Amino acid sequence: MILTVTPNPSLDRTYEVPALMRGEVLRATCDRMDPGGKGVNVSRAVAAAGHRTLAVLPLGGAPGALVAELLGAEGIEVAPVPVTGQTRSNIAVAEPDGTLTKINATGPELTAAESEALLTAVRAHSADASWIACCGSLPRGLGPQWYAALAARAHEAGARIALDTSGPSLLAALRERPDVVKPNVEELAEAVERPLKTVGQALRAAEELRGRGARAVLASLGADGQLLVADSGTYFGHARVEAVRSNVGAGDASLAGFLAAGGEGPGALAAAVAHGAAAVQLPGSVMPTPDDLDPAGVTVTADIPLDRVLTQPAEYAR
């Protein structure tokens, strides 16, 4: 069972439009509503792959109730932590060429009691978990040390921690030696405080995170693929993609595939790449099922293309 923790979940509405024109009245060609948040998406992808998952998350107000209802409809077990604030609602506008415009709400501010209740809920449900995936930004009221505290408690209980966050929250948690961290290339650049323009530079940045405490790094390089840097070796994976429809939740689908495949080694990296490639070809934040995957289209190698220039280099501005 994979337990996910989403401290700042959302209700996500995605609209597909022929073109985004500022100041105009637009008619959507397609729209959908999904439960959102990085950990929520990991649970949705794990469930879509046929595995058991439990989502621990703070929920408040009518949007929070709808998030729980939508998750239940997807067969996902939910352990809600009631909060007084209202769960945020986010909007995404997708264009035919794959361009995505997102408007993310701030979300509620959690009290000290609600913060502790969330940690307690994770501990209470962690006994059966093969992995605990801690994902996303922290809401107001939770300091950057919160994920570090969660990782410490989880490790005390014998659970493995996968962490997908960024900025001070990521750096603070490294001292608790998370079993895997999953930054994208922009988050890597922020963590090492320099731009990353090649696969080799991204690899060195991932190695630095390992040096600071991460036991393994699963780094997303966008259209260029993914890197896995761990004790078992360093691997590079990429996949063919026919057309990008929406990249919402693609990184979360990748992490779900990685964890569901055991969370280590080239086989798990291949699963991560396959899930991410499938997710970007689906609408909104729809998570891929086994029928959507194309394992034959995935290549994983220990021969890292160090000089390969990234399609979307990561800049860094101090």
Automatic annotation (TrEMBL):
Residue ranges annotated for the Carbohydrate kinase PfkB domain, each copy included: 18-290
Record has Methyltransferase as a keyword: no
GO CC terms of this entry: cytosol
Pfam families: PfkB (PF00294)
Keywords: ATP-binding, Kinase, Nucleotide-binding, Transferase
Biological process (GO), any one: carbohydrate catabolic process
Name of the protein in question: 1-phosphofructokinase
Lineage: Bacteria, Bacillati, Actinomycetota, Actinomycetes, Kitasatosporales
